[in-house]
Design a protein that fits this description.
This protein is α+β, with helices and mostly antiparallel strands and about 60 residues long. It contains 2 helices and 2 strands, in the order H-H-E-E. A two-stranded antiparallel sheet has the order 1-2.
């Protein structure tokens, strides 16, 4: 099974496992809204769609 991180989190949460709160945002404006909803501070993780490993990065 090949899942993106947010897809796997949904499956784990559905099975009753605890997962960290997260949001998927495709634009900077949606990322700002998500940050306010989650509460600050937040960590941003940029990822190219369907890319693995080398295209991922995090920024605080």
């Amino acid at each position: 099974m090949d899942l993106l991180e947010h897809e796997g989190k949904g499956l784990f949460a559905g099975a009753g496992l605890r997962v960290l709160l997260s949001r998927v945002a495709m634009t900077p404006a949606k990322a700002r809204v998500a940050a306010v909803e989650l509460g600050l501070p937040v960590t941003e993780q940029g990822r190219a769609v369907r890319a693995r490993g080398w295209a991922a990065g995090t920024e605080r």
